[in-house]
Amino acid sequence: MRKEAAESVIEILKSAKMRIEPNGVGELMEALKGAMKESNKAVLKANISLLADLAEAMGAPIKNYTKKCFVPMLYNLSDKQSLVRDEVVACMNKWAEAIGAETVVTHACA
Fold it and tell me: Does residue 1 carry a pLDDT above 90?
């Protein structure tokens, strides 16, 4: 059910041609913050993918959620499953496109 919820939001983003306004996503971002500690790897990957798609759809305003969502997502770089780590790297790349590589590297190295 949690994975389907993330996939539903991804479908909404795709139907909006991957362009959304940053207004009104606070609750979603708060939920994604908690979802970065998900023990079910399939759900975790779906949530990381959603976070990546949100960065692509929102663009530069996603920077406001760096500490709330991006930093907790980075902890999954140490996951034992390579598929989760690959998803984190893909998410980092999308955030770098949206907010600049310098910001991503700064938070990744902190």
Answer: no
Name which of 28, 27, 37, 26 is nearest 71 in CA terms. 37
User: Rounded to an integer, what is the distance from CA 14 to the centroid of its chain?
Assistant: 15
Per residue in 78-102, pLDDT tens? 999 999 999 999 999 999 999 999 8
87 vs 60: CA distance, rounded Å: 21
Q: Which homologous superfamily does the CATH classification assign to the domain defined by 2-109?
A: Leucine-rich Repeat Variant (1.25.10.10)
Domain ranges of the chain: 2-109
Task: Specify the length of the chain in residues.
Answer: 110
- For 4, 39, 64, 93, the CA distances from 23, given in Å and listed in that order, are 23, 30, 11, 23
